[in-house]
Amino acid sequence: MSPTRNEELPPPTNSKVMILKLRVAQKAVVSQISQVQHDPQHFDVFLSSQGQQASTAALVNNYLHARYLKVWKDTREMSGNIFEAMAKGNINSSVVTPGC
After folding, report:
1. Domain of life, per the record (predicted)?
2. Residue 49: its pLDDT value, please?
3. pTM assigned to the model
4. Which residues pair with 93 in a beta bridge?
5. pLDDT band at residue 74, thresholds of 50, 70 and 90?
6. CA–CA dist 67, 7 (Å, integer)
């Protein structure tokens, strides 16, 4: 049953919101890719998550990789000092996600 005009739609789930954000971010990244020299330290997207968000982050990561974007993912790229690693990942990424 679809909502009537006066009823409020339920808020989108986190996954739906994240996919919408990703589509916007993807357009921004694609427009920048041709302008960025690809060196081993550069990433197209910075992706980090916490606890319960790990499964969503994995889906987002797979979505981006399927579109040939180089993703800085905390579970893969982080070593040594956590704060330094995250700062370096942020600085070396074209797009930083607000969190998954």
Report:
1. Eukaryota
2. 81
3. 0.55
4. 43
5. confident
6. 37
Domain boundaries, the chain: 14-27+40-96
Percentage of the chain beyond pLDDT 90 is 0
- What beta strand segments (E) does 3-78 contain? 43-47, 71-73
CA distance 4 to 69: 41
Crossing angle for the helix pair 54-66 and 14-33, nearest 10 degrees? Answer: 30
What's the pLDDT at 76?
Answer: 83
User: Which residues touch 97 (CB under 8 Å, ≥6 apart)?
Assistant: 21, 22, 25, 45, 46, 47, 48, 60
Whats the size of the chain, residue-wise? 100
